[in-house]
Amino acid sequence: MKTRQIVKTNDDSSTLFVPELNQHYHSIHGAIQESQHVFIDAGFNFKKDFNPLKIFEAGFGTGLNAFMTMQNARSENLSCEYWAIEKYPLSDQEASHLNYPSLLDSESSTKHFLELHNSSWGELNKMHDFFHLKKIQGDLKEIELPTNYFDLIYYDAFAPSSQADLWTIEVFKKMYDCLKNNGTLVSYCVKGDVRRNMAAAGFKVDKIPGPPGKREMARATAIKPQSDASK
Ligand SMILES: C[S@@+](CC[C@H](N)C(=O)[O-])C[C@H]1O[C@@H](n2cnc3c(N)ncnc32)[C@H](O)[C@@H]1O
Question: What are the start-end ranges of the E strands in 114-215?
Fold first, then answer.
C-alpha cells in the first residue's frame, strides 16, 4: 500500500484514505460511529455471554476496532482473546496522529492505544487482565487459522469494488472453518454477491440495520453439522 492520508470523518474521528484504491478505512459518516455500530454493538455486545470471547479481525488497520473492544472488555470484565491480521501495518507516525484516544477518553487512553500498535507481531500479548492481542502480519488469503476456535469475526476488509479477492467463497470458507458452531461474522458489507459467497461457504446470513449512512449490514452465523463442530 503506497500513500495514505489522515482525514476526518463526520463524527470528527479520523480515518485513513488510500488514493491508489480510492478507499477510506472507515465510513466517512463517522469512523467511531461505524465501529461502535457494526463491530461493538452487532458483534461484541451480541456475543458477550461468551466468556472468554475469542475474536478474529480481518484487517487490523488503525486498530480502532481492537481499541474499542479492549475498552469494552475491561468495562464488562469479559476476557477477550483478539487475533488480527494486517498486510500493511501503520507506521508509528500514522498511529500517533489518529485522534481515537482523545475522543474515546478513558484513563491513559493514548498510552493504551499506542501499546496496541507497538505490541509484537506473531504472539499473544497481554494488554490488560481482560484483553490479550495477537497481531499477525500477512495476507488474509494465505493465513492458516485454528479450526472451530473463534466465537466472533470482525470482517473489515476494503470494499469488494477495490479488493474483490477478499470477498470470495474461498476466503469465507476459511472464516467459516475457524469459527465455532454458531460463531458470528459481522461486516459492514451486505452486497448480494457477498451474501451469496458467505452462504456458499456455509453461513446463514442476516441483514440487520446498518450504521448511520448505510441502511443495512451483515451478520452471518456459521452453522456446522454436528460431526464437524466437535472436531
Ligand atoms: C477497511 S480497512 C479497515 C482496517 C481496520 N479494521 C480499522 O478499523 O482501521 C482494511 C484493512 O485491511 C488491510 N488489508 C488489505 N489487504 C489485506 C490482505 N490481503 N490481508 C490482510 N489485510 C489486508 C488494509 O491494509 C486495511 O488495514
Answer: 124-128, 131-137, 150-155, 179-187, 203-209
Report the C-alpha gap between 132 and 117 in whole angstroms: 13
Question: Cell numbers at residue 115, please?
Answer: 501499546
Per residue in 44-65, pLDDT (tens digit) is 999 999 999 999 999 999 999 9
Closest protein CA for atom 16 of ligand 1: 87
> Is the omega angle on the peptide bond into residue 52 within 30 degrees of 0, that is, cis?
yes
**Rounded CA gap, 3 and 86, in Å?**
16
| 157 vs 196: CA distance, rounded Å | 17
Pairing of strands 53-58, 150-155: parallel
**Could you state, in order of their start, the residue ranges of all structural domains in the chain?**
30-229
Output the CA 156–ligand 1 centroid distance in Å: 7
Q: Fold for 30-229, please state it.
A: Rossmann fold (3.40.50)
Give me the half-sphere count of Cα atoms (radius 13 Å) on the Cβ side of residue 174. 16
Atom of ligand 1 nearest to the CA of 26: 1
**Greatest CA span in the chain, whole angstroms?**
49
pTM for this structure? 0.97
